[in-house]
UniProtKB/TrEMBL annotation:
<protein>
    <submittedName>
        <fullName>AraC family transcriptional regulator</fullName>
    </submittedName>
</protein>
<dbReference type="InterPro" id="IPR009057">
    <property type="entry name" value="Homeodomain-like_sf"/>
</dbReference>
<dbReference type="Pfam" id="PF06445">
    <property type="entry name" value="GyrI-like"/>
</dbReference>
<dbReference type="InterPro" id="IPR011256">
    <property type="entry name" value="Reg_factor_effector_dom_sf"/>
</dbReference>
<dbReference type="InterPro" id="IPR010499">
    <property type="entry name" value="AraC_E-bd"/>
</dbReference>
<dbReference type="InterPro" id="IPR018062">
    <property type="entry name" value="HTH_AraC-typ_CS"/>
</dbReference>
<dbReference type="InterPro" id="IPR020449">
    <property type="entry name" value="Tscrpt_reg_AraC-type_HTH"/>
</dbReference>
<dbReference type="Pfam" id="PF12833">
    <property type="entry name" value="HTH_18"/>
</dbReference>
<keyword id="KW-0805">Transcription regulation</keyword>
<dbReference type="InterPro" id="IPR029442">
    <property type="entry name" value="GyrI-like"/>
</dbReference>
<dbReference type="GO" id="GO:0003700">
    <property type="term" value="F:DNA-binding transcription factor activity"/>
</dbReference>
<keyword id="KW-0238">DNA-binding</keyword>
<dbReference type="InterPro" id="IPR050908">
    <property type="entry name" value="SmbC-like"/>
</dbReference>
<keyword id="KW-0804">Transcription</keyword>
<dbReference type="InterPro" id="IPR018060">
    <property type="entry name" value="HTH_AraC"/>
</dbReference>
<dbReference type="GO" id="GO:0043565">
    <property type="term" value="F:sequence-specific DNA binding"/>
</dbReference>
<feature type="domain" description="HTH araC/xylS-type">
    <location>
        <begin position="17"/>
        <end position="115"/>
    </location>
</feature>
Amino acid sequence: MRRTNIDLKEDYTHRLSRVFSFIEKNLDADLSLKIVAARAHFSEYHFHRVFKFVTGETLNEYVTRKRIERAALDLVHRKNTIKTTAFKFGFSSMSSFSKTFKKIYGISPKEFQFQNPNKFSKIRQLESKIGQAYPDIEKYICIINNIKNWIIMKADIQIKEFSDLNLACVSCTGPQNLGLAYQKILLWATPKNLMSEDSKMVTIYHDSFKVTEPDKIRMSACLILEKPTETSHQIHEKNIERGKYIVGHFKINMTEFEKSWTGLFIWMNENGYQKADKDPFEIYYNNPNEHPDKKAIVDFCIPIV
């Protein structure tokens, strides 16, 4: 049977999943085509074609974008000096960093750091969706206070130590593809009798909506494994490392996920915590479609140092 472009893209995406992780963990290092292709066990020529086919970007374009996005988050969450951030993410000069940063975000790193840090956040996205201009300082403070009050009523927030979580995952790009990724997990897990009333699904966010365009957000749809299980060519294993997390437990409508994440990050900042260099994730405790009020029971988890 002839394989379609969609089939090929899904297969290559799976094969590149470890490459994406390697890139994200080594943004300060040499990520040349030769080094990354060798990591993927492809020839340089074949890897270049496959990578562009899957991501729509060359390796250099992808790495540069990831470095700038991570640098932007670093400026927002850690308030590092611009020079420290530039060298932390592999830029050899301030001029190169500033020029590339401005090309992606339209403003300099200095302007980005000292402007309202939520200009690029989900609040901005929600405002723009309904045709409103970005709020002035009074309106902004009102929005923040409303979210703070809302999260106090909606969430049980705790600091928890997590043990290692072993997962079976399917990665995808763009929120519109997350449902299909979960279908693949279920089709793989059900015949293996891995699904039960106690099974928990997890969504990992490898990128942030604060700084990455939605259609380029990488996510993983996952199932928590209770024991070691052999995966398939489309399912990869992943481990969420033990560590300390802010955990917000919610019972919410599906339309309230963005507001919940925004509120939890505000809570993090207000209480003096700092995000760790790990990916945030959601743990689901039910199927919202089976809840009488269509509510999702979910933990939002932010890794902290």
